[in-house]
Amino acid sequence: xxxxxxxxxxxxxxxRWGLMRNxxxxxxEEHSLEVAVIAHTLCQLRNTRFAGxxxxxxxxxxxxxxxxxxxxxxDLPTPVKYFSAEIREAYRKVEAVSLRRLLQSLPQxxxxxxxxxxxxxxxxxxxxxxxxxxxxxxxxxxxxxxEKAGNTEFKQAASAQLKSIAAMQIPEAxxxxxxxxPGYRLSLDEQE
Length: 192
Known about the structure:
- The protein is mostly helical and about 190 residues long.
- It has 10 helices and no strands.
- The chain has helices at about 5-10, 30-50, 55-65, 70-75, 80, 85-105, 110-120, 125-150, 155-170, 170-180.
- Helix 2 (about 30-50) packs antiparallel against helix 3 (about 55-65) and helix 8 (about 125-150) runs antiparallel to helix 9 (about 155-170).
- The mean pLDDT is about 95.
């Protein structure tokens, strides 16, 4: 018996933004899908507009699994996770144990196919940079959605995400912000 997929299905029970008042909760499962879609888009932008040659499908797949350790750890709020180098290092170790536990929940013969999705691989550094940008863009989108709903608590978080994305100096993320982000501020009727 393997409980790998049953464990993955628990992503829908892991709520994000635990220290913030949310007008609508966001769970890990929906966040991971959004990050996958955005990561794929960033790859398409890189390949189409910036003479890149990255695998968007692999980026999307890695993004789906990028936070699965939180099935066991929960979503540790950013201010806690990055409070100090010691806490960040301890959390990395906990994440590694969680990922190993998840991998071991698979039948032995399937593990080699999933290990490269759970643990960073040498050739994926460029993809992980884009996935990190996609993760931050997803957080920014959450902030915009909360602000649209009248929740001013996310105003500072939105500003912090924009600064963080700008500091990454990823032109594809800048394209996403200028071309696609404005649509998130519109109602469905305004988008037609």
